[in-house]
Amino acid sequence: MSKKETFGGVWTIEKLDILSKYLDFYTTALKNQNFRKIYVDGFAGEGEITLRNGQKIEGSASIALNIGLPFDRYYFIELNTKKAKKLELLKYSRKDRNITIINSDANIALQSLVLNTDWRYSRGVFFVDPFATQTEWKTLKVISDTGSIDLWFLFPFYAVNRLFAKDKEQIVLWKDRLNNCFGGNDWEDVIYKKKEAVQLSIFEGEQFESDFEKVGTDSIIKYVTNKLKTIFPYVAPNPRIFKNEKNSIMFILFFMTSSKNPKAQVLASKCAEHILKTKE
Ligand SMILES: C[S@@+](CC[C@H](N)C(=O)[O-])C[C@H]1O[C@@H](n2cnc3c(N)ncnc32)[C@H](O)[C@@H]1O
């Protein structure tokens, strides 16, 4: 792994700890049910992570393979061919698990996988863990439509917040990307508000209105949460917020379930909220 690709933030460990706990809970909770249990890793990496201090830890793919009660199927999606090859080696070393490696773009692979699975007989946990703004809204929508998937989604707050330029005029450059992330342009009216202050011109009695201004961090988080709630019946109210050393929000880890079954929802939500609340 090159230096640039090494992961560093404490959030890497925290994020994977949360995933590991949920996967353990999930396969245990569903152990006596007849559903085919599927784990899908949308941005799977290579099975191992080198932290900034050089320490090597298990990546999400290895964690999922090593939980006590396994899933029936594992799908690891990774765009980078070198990393996908490392995942092939991991697959080779785990003949006791049913693993498929997909060397492709996550949006294409996730949508195809979801649409080609009969969700009447399957249940799944999806982990969508991108570096930046790769995840399309359409992919989240397809996942939510199944009614059978629990999703952990690492929302790239820093990257998206940068695309929301301070000056509304500049967003023209990133509009398409933001529309892909949010499935439309409703964000424009939420993220940019007309300044309330009316500035007085130097000419007596003549007034002109100033431009739009970007809303604050809390309002952006609220927008993202509410947006996810438009397609998922349940979104955990306490997502884990990951900040860098400068106290800037980098990522937000959201948990959602697409299940409309009240019993399944209560079980998943209780567990996810508890895991998200507890920091070690
Ligand atoms: C944050 S890392 C994932 C880390 C991994 N979940 C782990 O715990 O080991 C993001 C990964 O997504 C891959 N990636 C980037 N763009 C992608 C895309 N469009 N589709 C699939 N994978 C992509 C990168 O090569 C990188 O390995």
CATH superfamily descriptor: Vaccinia Virus protein VP39
Helix content: 25-40%
- Cα(first) to Cα(last) distance is 28 Å
- E-strand count: 14
What's the rounded overall pLDDT mean?
Answer: 92
Instruction: Characterize the biggest β-sheet.
Output: 8 strands, mixed
CATH architecture: 3-Layer(aba) Sandwich
**Rg, please?**
21 Å
Question: What topology emerges from the helices and strands here?
Answer:
Layout: H1 10-29, E1 36-41, E2 48-50, E3 56-58, H2 60-66, E4 73-77, H3 81-93, E5 99-102, H4 106-115, E6 122-128, H5 137-145, E7 149-155, H6 157-163, H7 175-182, H8 187-191, E8 192-194, E9 198-200, E10 207-209, E11 212-214, H9 217-229, E12 234-235, E13 240-243, E14 249-257, H10 262-277
Parallel strand pairs: 1-4, 1-6, 4-5, 6-7
Antiparallel strand pairs: 2-3, 7-14, 8-11, 9-10, 12-14, 13-14
This protein binds S-adenosylmethionine.
